[in-house]
Amino acid sequence: MHRLLEEIWDRGVVTNSGPIQAKFEESLRPAIGGETQLFLANGYSALRIMLAALGTQGQVIVSSFTHPATVQAVLASGLEPVAVDIDPHDLNISVEAVAAAITSETIAILATHVFGNPSDVDELSRLADAHSLLLLFDAAAAVGVMYRGRPIGEYGNASAFSFHATKVLSAVEGGAVVFNDMETAAKARSLANFGIAEGGPLLAGMNAKGNEITAAIGLTSLPLLADEIEARTRLRQQYSAHLDSLESMSVIPIRIRSVYNHSTFAVRARTVDGRHLAEPLQGYLRARGIESRRYFSGRYSNPLLNDRDHPHATQASEDVICLPLWGSMSARDVGEVCRTISDFLSEASLR
Ligand SMILES: Cc1ncc(COP(=O)(O)O)c(C=O)c1O
Question: Would the pTM count as exceeding 0.85?
Answer without folding.
Answer: yes
